[in-house]
Design a protein that fits this description.
The complex is a heterodimer of chains A (473) and B (410). Chain A has 473 residues and is an alpha/beta fold. Chain A has 16 helices and 17 strands. Chain A has three domains: 62 residues, 3-methyladenine DNA Glycosylase II, Chain A, domain 3, CATH 1.10.15; 263 residues, TIM Barrel (Alpha-Beta Barrel); 120 residues, Rossmann fold (3-Layer(aba) Sandwich). In chain A, the strands form four sheets. In chain A, strands 10-9-8-7-6-3-12-11 form an eight-stranded parallel sheet. Chain A has a five-stranded mixed sheet with strand order 13-15-14-16-17, sandwiched between helices. A two-stranded antiparallel ribbon of chain A has the order 1-2. In chain A, strand 1 and strand 2 form a beta hairpin. Chain B has 410 residues and is of the alpha/beta class. Chain B has one domain: Dihydropteroate synthase-like (TIM Barrel), CATH 3.20.20. In chain B, 36% of the residues lie in helices and 12% in strands. Chain B is built from 14 helices and twelve strands. In chain B, strands 9-8-7-6-5-4-11-10 form an eight-stranded parallel sheet. In chain B, 52% of the residues are buried. The chains are: A alpha/beta (473), B alpha/beta (410).
């Protein structure tokens, strides 16, 4: 019964189902190469035009089945205003790689005045943080019905549709309230929260009527959750999301256990009834005994961190201040990077701006995050300089210095290999502040004058302004 | 449930900061629902929404919930992480009030909760023996004691409830103060006298100097079961590893084997150490990188190491440590940022706590931490995650958030 794990599927099995004409239409040299990249999830089947033709329909279906993730991928919303949840192949990140980053949905509610709602929606839509060259943003809006009034819910849904471009989650235990919202935005395919053991008939009817993905809720009751998904599947619903319950405060262990049980059941045991994306609600931190909103937001951020690490595919969040959102967005981004990709960037010489023969020469480690941080600081300050990237085995400066991967000898070698001595007239090297301990040895090994730069590259612009060109030694 | 929320044990300094206006009103939603049902026309569900008339539920559509059961995934791992004892009581040849046992894991940490947690994770609070540059928000709680390691240790234990203390002998760094091994040993002795919790002894990172310092400290504190932080492959290259390892073996101390995000290195270093000390005296530091600066590499290397250990790789069956104070090297922890990002006194502890929390879930057994608020958050997490067995019914209500009026929104 258990589906074989993705890491056990061989390219040969996939190859046998491909047209095997080596036509190259996919851009790969041959079908075997394409098969390998399919198994690695670097490409999708759609990239093979021939297999989309009717004569290959049988093989195509078999391929789909062979490559389908044990946790279904569910799209919420439509077109550009959409997000894919789930589509997971593995439990632990290092086994393969996680797909479809956890969707971070920010809560709004129907008790807000139109102005308040619009303002909060703007803040949600405009939130952005530049992290190593990427824009981190919030992904969706979750409207909660706290008044229980279908009219207010409908109006709020309309306001969201007009004001913001993000996919929607509509939340109410009352199917009538949800229907009012759904009908206000035909075609947007909001995710509906939630069908439970009492309202499932109406919720299923609504989800079928409006072709919407549906959350299934059974807090701390996985048998109940399976019973619901089994029933709803029999009704023809396939785009389901599971909410096993996010408990505030002391219930965290139950929350984590239920999420882990769902994910293990789906991936390790091939349980199709639990093979759906998981919805976490760190917002529950605001409904416990703590009343202070800052402490609630602190608690919510920690809960979000736990749920990101423990398999949540979508999170409902309340705190909208940068300090609580930022660690969540960064950890989400980090967890969904591909652990198969190297940690390192190519060592060697980089040129920024339009450096001349008097421009500064800096050195840093080839750890990807170190490099991108330094790069983005240099670029945002419009500095013209040379940057020598030393091969530190992909370690950051601090770890590399501690582990002796960033050493005076290494700096000398990287400097010589870079050929930067032919591009500048001076012989002055700026090393990272975190490598200060190496300054003496580095001067000896390179024969250059060594200056200790700032500990954090955010200090580079001020440092260069004050210290460059350097006075006599 | 008092004090069991994640920020339950927060430091008083931060408490004052956190205390801002905001409130929650929870309305009994059953009542609202009753009202709604009265108000809604009963035919509301029958009206097709988008043109197409949906088919009436056919005979294939069940009218009652189909029964289903749930059987949790069975897990059984052939391997087990060794236990390491930190600190020795008088009866055991030391002078600590009590010893701490770490490790012993038999399953991935905090996942399926299908067996008891063998040993509760431990937090060791940092002390530095010399003034090193620290972000203001990080040093604020310790401003009074920064020039006196013994006082600092006392503050950690008596005020902040530290169960262990790490003394970082950074003054021994040839590029800082180049304190002698004897001076370093005197510092450790003063801390041993000031507090009665197990100690971790941190060096300066120089493989030769650390070997001299650790040897001196090991002899002075013979029998105290210190954790010497750390021994490295670099020491093997510098031919100083044997000296430290033998000193640890002779005087009954534990060794912290430090490697940089590379399991083959970790295994090689452990193999070298097995020649000198029993495996039960080795803890691994696989490297902690701050959130935003590569925490995911630390996270996955710890998950991989723990998985391999549970699958039977004896060379990785050692408890692991995280230097979570490293979180403060992230600029997002300490930098001044636009108002929405709050101040470092809020962001910094959150950054340290999230860095530690991710590694707690990856299986780390002992944490070296600094900020009282971050430590409070981690202790609260230990409280809720290590309770065994779990209650029959989860505490609290999971779905209140759907209809709750939450103060401060807008």
């Amino acid at each position: 019964m258990a589906k074989r794990s993705i890491t056990e599927t061989s390219p040969i099995e996939v190859y046998r189902l491909l047209p095997r004409t080596n036509c190259g239409e996919c851009g790969e040299p041959n079908c075997m190469a394409f098969a390998t990249r399919l198994v690695n999830r670097e490409l999708t089947i759609d990239a093979c035009p021939p297999i989309l033709r009717p004569e290959h329909a049988g093989d195509r279906a078999d391929l789909d089945a062979l490559l389908a993730p044990p946790v279904r991928a569910v799209r919420i919303g439509r077109g550009e205003r959409s997000a894919v949840l789930g589509g997971k192949y593995i439990v632990q990140r290092h086994e393969f790689t996680y797909h479809n980053p956890t969707c971070c949905a920010l809560s709004v509610d129907d008790s807000l005045s139109r102005d308040q709602l619009v303002q909060r929606l703007r803040t949600i839509g405009e939130f952005s943080y530049n992290y190593i060259g990427r824009d981190l943003r919030l992904d969706a809006v979750a409207l909660r019905s706290v008044t229980g009034d279908p009219g207010r819910f409908r109006a709020a849904t309309e306001t969201i549709a007009e004001t913001c471009k993000l996919p929607l989650v509509l939340c109410s235990p009352d199917p009538g309230v949800l229907r009012a919202g759904v009908e206000a935005v035909p075609g947007l395919r909001p995710l509906l929260h939630a069908a439970d053991s009492t309202n499932w008939r109406e919720m299923a009817t609504l989800a079928l009527d409006a072709d919407c993905p549906l959350v299934v809720s059974a807090p701390d009751d996985l048998a109940g959750l399976r019973s619901l998904t089994k029933t709803l599947r029999a009704w023809g619903l396939e785009d389901l999301v599971l909410d096993p319950g996010t408990f505030p405060g002391g219930g965290l262990a139950h929350t984590v256990r239920n999420f882990a049980r769902c994910r293990y059941a789906a991936i390790r045991d091939g349980d199709e009834l639990l093979g759906y994306p998981l919805l976490g609600a760190p917002i529950a931190a605001f409904t416990g005994e703590e009343l202070d909103s800052t402490r609630c937001a602190f608690d919510e951020a920690l809960t979000a961190s736990v749920q990101l690490s423990r398999y949540a595919d979508i999170l409902i969040l309340q705190g909208l201040e940068g300090w609580s959102v930022l660690p969540t967005l960064i950890w989400r981004f980090n967890l969904y990077t591909d652990p198969r990709k190297p940690v390192a960037v190519e060592p060697g010489l980089r040129e920024f701006g339009s450096p001349d023969r008097q421009s500064p020469v800096l050195v840093t480690a080839n750890y990807a995050l170190t490099y991108f941080t330094v790069e983005s600081d240099i670029k945002s300050a419009n500095l013209s300089c040379y940057l020598v990237v030393e091969d530190t085995g992909g370690l950051s400066v601090e770890s590399a210095v501690a582990g002796r991967y960033f050493s005076a000898a290494g700096i000398a070698e990287a400097l010589a290999a870079s050929g930067v001595d032919e591009r500048v007239d001076h012989r002055v090297l700026i090393i990272p502040g975190l490598a200060a301990r190496l300054s003496g040895e580095a001067a000896e090994a390179t024969g250059w004058r060594v200056l200790v730069g700032p500990k954090d590259s955010s200090g580079l612009p001020a440092y260069i302004k004050e210290r460059w060109p350097p006075g006599p030694a | 449930m008092n004090g069991r929320d994640l920020v339950g044990a927060i430091g008083p300094e931060l408490l004052a900061l956190l205390r801002t206006a905001g409130r929650i009103e929870l309305e009994g939603f059953n009542l609202e629902l009753d009202e709604l049902e009265l108000r809604l026309p009963s035919g509301a569900f029958a009206a097709p929404a988008f043109g197409a008339v949906p088919p009436e539920p056919g005979p294939e559509r069940p009218t009652e919930l189909l029964p289903a059961d749930f059987v949790p995934t069975k897990t059984d791992y052939p391997g087990r992480v060794r236990e390491v004892v930190l600190g020795a009581t008088r009866r055991e040849g030391g002078s600590r009030a009590r010893a701490l046992t770490i490790g012993g894991a038999e399953a991935p940490a905090f996942t399926l909760f299908d067996r008891p947690i063998v040993n509760r994770p431990v937090i060791s609070m940092d002390v530095f023996d010399t003034r090193v540059p620290m972000p203001k928000a990080l040093r604020a709680p310790f401003e009074e004691v920064r020039d006196d390691p013994a006082e600092w240790a006392r503050l950690n234990v008596h005020r902040f409830g530290a169960k262990a203390v790490t003394v970082h002998l950074l003054s021994t760094d040839p590029l800082i103060k180049n304190s002698t091994p004897r001076e370093a040993a005197a510092t450790v002795e003063s801390v041993l006298q000031a507090v009665d919790v197990p100690l971790i002894i941190g060096g300066c990172g120089d493989p030769r100097k650390d070997a001299d310092v650790f040897s001196e400290v090991a002899a002075m504190a013979s029998g105290e079961r210190l954790l010497l932080n750390s021994v490295t492959l670099e020491m093997a290259t510098a031919k100083t590893l044997e000296k430290v390892a033998k000193a640890a073996a002779d005087h009954g101390h534990n060794l912290l084997a430090f490697t940089g995000l590379e399991l083959n290195d970790a295994k090689e270093l452990n193999r070298r150490l097995y020649e000198y000390v029993p495996p039960e005296q080795i803890v691994m530091d696989l490297t902690t990188v701050a959130l935003g600066y590569g925490l995911e590499y630390s996270f996955s290397i710890h998950e991989r190491a723990r998985h391999a250990a549970l699958m039977g790789d004896a060379e990785l069956q050692h408890p692991t440590i995280s230097g979570s104070t490293n979180a403060w090297s992230a600029r997002e922890a300490w930098m001044q940022m636009p108002p929405t990002y709050g101040g470092p006194e809020l962001r910094g502890p959150l950054w340290e706590a999230e860095t530690a929390l991710a590694l707690l879930l990856a299986g780390v057994d002992i944490f070296m931490m600094s900020h009282p608020a971050a430590i409070g958050a981690m202790r609260a997490a230990f409280d809720v995650l290590t309770t065994w067995p779990l209650d029959e019914v989860a505490e609290g209500r999971a779905n209140d958030w759907v209809t709750a009026r939450i103060g401060g929104e807008g």
